[in-house]
């Protein structure tokens, strides 16, 4: 037998050269180079790739996975409708068959009774030619026989009615069972539809989630209006990562008695909060971008920690000083960038090309690090 402590290299060439043979199977369950199936293989995604590339594949193939889930949903719905139609057809066929068999048996028994009556009537005609005593005797015999036949007919009728009632009870039971199955199938269809809608919502929000470089660009419009009203502007909702923490950026132009701009982080109630670890911890760098040149940006880096939000919007912390992220005067007063006189060009430093406010809009860039726990 092979020694379980003998060191062997990883068969997937993940970089680990010495693994005890007894631990090799446990290593393969978490090896980053082990080939695994896509999480949406049940929906029809046939991609197989190393475990370390699975998360990237899931993010890049969201649209394809939505299409596969939609097709699977359509297939389930068609199977549900087909099964429902088959059950309805079977119920109708069963009911028609039971009614037809019951009616045929009843008609056959009635026909037999009428044949007996015809036969007895013929006997009465023959006996009429005999004496009165024979006629009376025959009449009594006929009445006795007829009474027996009527009792038998009544018994047969009662049996047929009992069978009809039993058939109706079985039909009602089958109908109730079919309705229960229909409700169950409709519930499954509703759950599948909700999963598809959730995936669709995730695709919609993914447009404002960080890209592979963990950078988010967003604009604040109507700067002059917010400044004059000294009100708050909230950015669109964002996520720290796919299926991560939900947050937004709030800009207040009324700080410093209306002379400063303050920027805050707001924690939002997210769709995936119940699956995340709390408290959340995230390092972010916010930059107010210079539109003229890729330098002289206004930046502030903060590490935020917040608990699971209990209301729709919970303020966490500000970027930089509460009152001094940037002054209004620095936003609106752009250094002179025109032509200088000979005297100015000799003794003055060259002017900087800075323009934060353009078309009454401010452009922000948010850089995210991976969440820390």
Q: What's the N-to-C terminus distance? A: 44 Å
Low-confidence stretches: 202-213
Largest sheet: 6 strands, antiparallel
According to DSSP, the number of beta strands is: 15
- What general form does the structure show? elongated
Residue share in helix: 40-55%
Could you spell the SSE succession in H and E letters?
Answer: EEHEEHHHEHEEEHEEEEEHHEE
Cα-atom radius of gyration = 43 Å
In terms of structural class, how would the helical and strand content be classed?
Answer: alpha+beta
Average the pLDDT over all residues and give the rounded result: 83
What is the strand content?
15-25%
- How many alpha or pi helices? 8
Oligomeric form of this entry? single chain
């Amino acid at each position: 037998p092979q020694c379980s402590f003998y060191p062997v290299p990883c068969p997937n060439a993940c970089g680990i050269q010495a693994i005890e043979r007894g631990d090799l199977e446990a290593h393969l369950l978490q090896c980053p180079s082990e080939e695994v199936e896509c999480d949406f293989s049940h929906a029809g995604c046939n991609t197989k790739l190393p475990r370390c590339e699975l998360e990237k594949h899931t993010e890049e193939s969201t649209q394809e996975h939505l299409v596969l889930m939609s097709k699977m949903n359509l297939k389930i719905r068609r199977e549900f409708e087909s099964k429902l139609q088959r059950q309805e057809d079977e119920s109708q066929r069963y009911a028609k068959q039971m009614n037809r068999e019951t009616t045929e048996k009843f008609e056959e028994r009635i026909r037999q009774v009428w044949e007996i009556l015809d036969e007895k009537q013929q006997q009465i005609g023959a006996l009429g030619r005999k004496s009165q005593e024979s006629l009376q005797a025959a009449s009594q015999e006929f009445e006795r026989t007829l009474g027996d036949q009527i009792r038998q007919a009544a018994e047969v009728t009662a049996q047929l009615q009992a069978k009809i009632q039993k058939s109706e009870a079985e039909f009602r039971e089958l109908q109730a069972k079919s309705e229960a199955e229909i409700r169950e199938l409709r519930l499954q269809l509703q759950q599948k539809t909700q999963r598809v809608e959730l995936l669709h919502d995730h695709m919609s929000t993914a447009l404002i989630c960080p890209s592979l470089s963990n950078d988010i660009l967003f604009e604040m419009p109507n700067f002059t209006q917010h400044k004059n009203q000294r009100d708050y502007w909230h950015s669109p909702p964002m996520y720290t990562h796919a299926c991560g923490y939900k947050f937004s950026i709030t800009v207040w132009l009324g700080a410093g008695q209306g002379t400063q701009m303050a920027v805050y982080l707001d924690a939002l109630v997210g769709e995936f909060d119940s699956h995340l670890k709390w408290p959340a911890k995230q390092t972010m760098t916010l930059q107010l971008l210079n539109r003229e040149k890729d330098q002289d940006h206004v930046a502030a880096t903060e590490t935020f920690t917040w608990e699971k939000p209990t209301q729709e919007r919970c303020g966490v912390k500000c970027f930089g000083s509460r009152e001094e992220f940037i002054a209004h005067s620095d936003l609106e007063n752009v250094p002179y960038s025109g032509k200088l006189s000979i005297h100015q060009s000799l003794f003055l430093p060259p002017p900087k090309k800075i323009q934060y406010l353009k078309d009454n809009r401010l452009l922000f860039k948010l850089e995210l690090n991976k969440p820390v726990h």
